[in-house]
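Renewal narrative, Specific Aim 1. Our central claim is that a sequence can be written position by position from structural information alone. The example that follows is taken directly from our test logs and has not been curated for this report. It begins with the structure tokens describing the chain, in the order in which they were read.
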């Protein structure tokens, strides 16, 4: 470390709470060292009320960039100078870049998801996607997929606190992109079967399958799958879920959430370092 950090080292950081468990400092510091880049990445535990002071610090310390995590992603989008198209539509950002005092907010979760598909030779452009979820991860995927040229998105969610967000996402996609989005109740399993039947890809963008919802699936049984359907999980712990093991039994190509996580980080790294 004493050989790595010097008087010129540029600072990047993660802001939010809690941040102590985050893998981001390890991932980015390893990458900076690996690529011989003179940056260091820290994590700072801050709350929403402290975010104006965070932005003063970013400017004062001329930080190159960093990340925002919960609960600071929405307030960050109000405090940056500019927003990427996806971050503007979503009203949240998880990445920022400071170009000589001009701070731009980006959201890389959806970019990471779309890149992970490409990396697996899955081409959704011009096709139909059915997706369960209306939280942070699912919304980022839905907006990015619509911006990138997915033709139609059927969104399913339960009637919980995320329902209003799903309505808002559908409205924004239909208003601001060429994609046609529709919202359905995830409890309407016959509608789910119908929408999955003519979709190219099905995505579980909820926390179902991951602790504390481990062993559960948003798709009730194997009869919903057909071998040509691509089946993707956004959760990545555990790596194998009930939903994907059912899909595999039918012969579907499947993908877990690890690629999305890797490529959202890679997208941020590229924004900071080129
Ligand atoms: P969130 O809390 O913002 O959203 C939760 C979503 O799950 C909502 O749509 C909610 O309605 C749904 N949900 C909750 N309980 C449910 C139930 N019993 N039945 C059906 N739906 C239910 O969470 P998030 O940040 O969007 O994360 C969702 C999942 O994605 C988590 O497992 C998270 O770890 C994972 N994730 C993965 C990546 C990645 O890079 N792969 C990135 C972010 C999040």
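The sequence written for that structure reads:
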């Amino acid at each position: 470390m004493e050989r790595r950090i010097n008087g010129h080292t540029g600072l990047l950081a993660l802001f939010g709470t809690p941040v102590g468990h985050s893998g981001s400092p390890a991932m980015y510091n390893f990458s900076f060292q690996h690529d011989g880049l003179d940056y260091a990445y820290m994590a700072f535990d801050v709350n929403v009320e402290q975010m104006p002071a965070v932005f003063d610090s970013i400017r004062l310390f001329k930080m190159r960039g960093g990340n925002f995590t919960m609960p600071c992603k929405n307030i960050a989008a109000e405090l940056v100078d500019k927003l990427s198209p996806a971050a503007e539509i979503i009203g949240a950002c998880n990445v920022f870049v400071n170009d000589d005092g001009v701070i731009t907010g980006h959201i890389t979760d959806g970019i990471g998801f779309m890149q992970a598909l490409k990396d697996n030779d899955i081409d959704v452009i011009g096709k139909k996607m059915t997706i369960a979820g209306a939280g942070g991860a699912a919304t980022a995927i839905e907006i990015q997929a619509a911006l990138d040229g997915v033709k139609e998105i059927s969104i399913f969610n339960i009637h919980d606190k995320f329902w209003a967000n799903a309505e808002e996402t559908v409205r924004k996609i239909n208003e601001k992109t060429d994609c046609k989005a529709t919202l359905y109740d995830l409890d309407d399993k016959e509608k789910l079967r119908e929408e999955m039947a003519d979709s190219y890809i099905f995505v579980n963008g909820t926390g179902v399958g991951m602790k504390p919802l481990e062993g559960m699936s948003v798709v009730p049984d194997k009869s919903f799958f057909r071998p040509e359907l691509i089946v993707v999980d956004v959760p990545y712990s555990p790596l194998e879920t009930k939903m994907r093991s059912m899909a595999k039994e039918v012969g579907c190509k499947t993908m877990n959430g690890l690629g999305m996580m890797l490529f959202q980080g890679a997208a941020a790294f590229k924004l900071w370092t080129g």
